[in-house]
Amino acid sequence: MNADKCGNHTFTQVRREGNICMYRRNRVDNDRLHTVEVFVTRVVKAGSPLPGGGTVAEDYEQYPGASSFGRTAWSTGDIKGGELIFERLLKKQIAVEEADTNETELVPVARVVQPKGERRALNWPTVPFTQKDLAAFNHIDNYKEVYTDLQRALATNHVRVCEQVKEVNRGRAAKMFELVNVPVAA
Question: In the prediction, which pLDDT does 56 show?
Fold first, then answer.
C-alpha cells in the first residue's frame, strides 16, 4: 500500500491494548523496517457524512492520516522507540488531542490546470504492436504515457485491436493493435 506516496509498504500489527495500536511498516521491495507507527484509533460512526454526500454504512476504525501525527499518532524508526511510546500512551504520559467529531473544517478548493503545451505526435509502427511496444517505438520510458493517444486512435478508427496475446500464467492478455490506414510517405 502506498499510503503516503513514499513507496509501497505492508502494515503489520505488533501490539494492541484497547484503542492503542502499534504497527510495523515494512517496505514491500526488500521487507526492511521503514517505521513503527503508534497511535490511538478513532472510530468513525455509521451515518457520518462522506465527501460527495453519502454516509458511512457501519462503524469502523480509521487508520490515522498525515494530520494525526503528533496529535494522536507517532512514528519512530525502531521497535524499541515504538514500545516506549506505546507504554507512555498506556500510562497517559503523552497528551492525546481528542478529535472533535462535530467540528468541520472548510478547505477552499482551487482547480489546478496545467498549461497545455504542444502535444507530441506519436510515430506509429507499421507492424502489429502492444501499448508497451508503442511507447518503446517512440522512446517513451513509461508505457502508460501513450494510453490516451492509443485510446483516441481506437475511437477514431486509426488503429484497431487485431489479437490478444497471453503469456503463460502471467496476468491479463495483452492487446495487439494494428494501423487501419497506413499513411503513405511521399
Answer: 85
Q: Is the pLDDT of residue 107 over 60?
A: no
Residue 40: Cβ-neighbour burial (10 angstroms; 0-12, 13-18, 19+): buried
**Whole-number Å distance between alpha carbons of 45 and 19:** 15
Q: Which amino acid is at 36?
A: V
* Residue-range domain boundaries for the chain: 9-90, 131-179
- Is residue 100 classed as helix, strand or coil in its secondary structure? coil
Give the residue from 137, 135, 139, 136 showing the smallest Cα distance to 150.
135
CA distance 178 to 163: 9
Burial call 164-174: b when 16+ CB within 10 Å, e when fewer: eeeeeeeeeeb
Give me the half-sphere count of Cα atoms (radius 13 Å) on the Cβ side of residue 53.
0
Lowest mean per-residue pLDDT among 112-116, 130-134, 177-181, 182-186: 182-186
